[in-house]
Input
Amino acid sequence: MTVRWGVLSTAAIGKVVVNALGTSDVARFVAVASRDGAKAAAFAAEVGLGRSWGSYEQLLADDEVDAVYISLPVSMHTEWTLEALRAGKHVLCEKPFATRAADAAACFDAAQAAGRTCAEGLMWRHHPQTHLARALVDGGAIGRVVLVRAALSVSVPPGDIRRTGRLGGGASLDLGCYCVSAVRLFGGQPLSVAAAQVVDTAPGAEGSDLRLAATLSLPGDALAQFDVALDYPRRDELEVVGTEGRLRLPDPWLCRLGHLELERGGTFERLPADPEGRYGLGDPADPDNDDAYRIELEAVSAAIEGSATAGFGRTDAVDQAAVIEAVRSAAATGTVVRPPGTAPGTCPA
Output
């Protein structure tokens, strides 16, 4: 079975994902929807899709679409995830899946009721580079984890959707979700969060965070720190420090470099992410190498058609949203916040 995907929105990330999937045997994109029919038609022509729709409802009624990839603004994620699930479509929703734990739970309730797969679009987690890092940490390669440190920053102008408050803009939502995901994956569900922010004063930002830094306490007396910004030079950093060494992922989120770095006992190793070539990774020097999105779509499609498990499900998505909620609350109030979690001390697969 080849899962037939539709794209909800003509956002630029949708073009990246459609092109990244290429000629996969597991999944293919067949349609796109926009509230502007001309934009949908132009998108379809550019990326080679057979059908375009002038409303989201029309795509959800399309019997030739099995699943939808939701690349709408953050503020619309919960609404249209619920609409898609109730229409009988499987869903892969761009990060952050939800800004509140209650919203994430409601989406998975709807998925269960509809008998459909629902997944959050944190593509880096599906990549073999991340699988290798997790296997090394779980296998004790760096001893007991004591610190997780992450950073992600980009520079975008005022007025960009990522800096538009009413659409769910802000550094903590657009970028912080990656860092929170990494903290939880390698350190477990945080026990408490402290954070500080710089408020975006640009027109349209509506008080969203331009920059944010957080310190999180983790199980086993471990700590985590991350910082994000929408007006800094590009930075992509992830380091996991243990009692016997450290692991560094030099390209943690897009995974284009295809290797990680392990330091222990005074020795340094560069380990390839896919030494046996199972995933067919592209050229690390290619700036358009978007393997992470292809691998994510194929993984979710395999779960939809029943040949694999979803990988990260309800508990993970709800706990992820709970930590994002706590980070934003801690930054806004200047207080230490304890995120509620369905599985304290763990990051469930």
About this structure: Residues 125-289+312-333 form a domain with the Dihydrodipicolinate Reductase; domain 2 fold (CATH 3.30.360.10). The chain has two domains: 3-124, 125-289+312-333. The first strand starts at residue 3 and ends at 8.
